[in-house]
Structures are given as C-alpha cells and as structure tokens.
Amino acid sequence: METKQPTNTEKYRKHYNDDDFWDKIMNVAKKAGAKVVYCALLLYYVLKSSSVPTEDKLIIIGALGYFILPLDLIADFIPIAGYTDDLAALIACYKAVKNNITPEIKQQAQNKYSEWFDNSDVPLLD
What we know:
126 residues, mainly alpha
C-alpha cells in the first residue's frame, strides 16, 4: 500500500494554530464566501478527530496554514480574487482527506456554519 506523502506543508505549518484559525474565519467569513468557510470548517474538524492518520493531519495543517497566511499567492485583500487560491488549496486538501469525514464531523461543521450564515444549506464541495 502506497503511503501518502505530505506535500509542501512545512512552509505553512508554522502559520497554523487554533487561535489564528478562528480569528481568520471570524474576520473573513462574509468576504471569503460560504464555500471557503465551510471547507475550512470541515478540515478543522477533521484535524481535531483522533482517528485521522498523521499524514492527513499534516496535509490539513498545511492547507489551513496557507488559508491563515494573509499574504499568499493571491493576497486576500484583493477583491473577489483574493480567496480563490485559498479555496483551491482547501478543496485540494478536502479531496485528499475526505475519506476521514464522518457524519459527526459534517454535523459539527454544519452547526458552526449555520451560526454564521443565515442560510443553513451548506455549499457542495464535490
């Protein structure tokens, strides 16, 4: 069985911690858009699960670290385009680790998402 190798997470790992994640989400929720926020929440709750392999957690830490970083490939302050690279990184990570998303994790993300957005329908990521 081939083992997944984390790709380029070292660069972003130092930028990830729970407090910075929640600060970023709270500050950009409306600007970044529903899909970015929901995907980030799913990944956050996957990261917190004790049943997720370390390799997958490293991939998530890299993606969430990139999301938290204010100056990345496309700076977040650029209207409309600013979060497209963040979404691309989050979606790529989601696809790599989605087999770890349990119904409980989905529910946690949906509950938190519903607190912030009037529409309780979460965006589709597939």
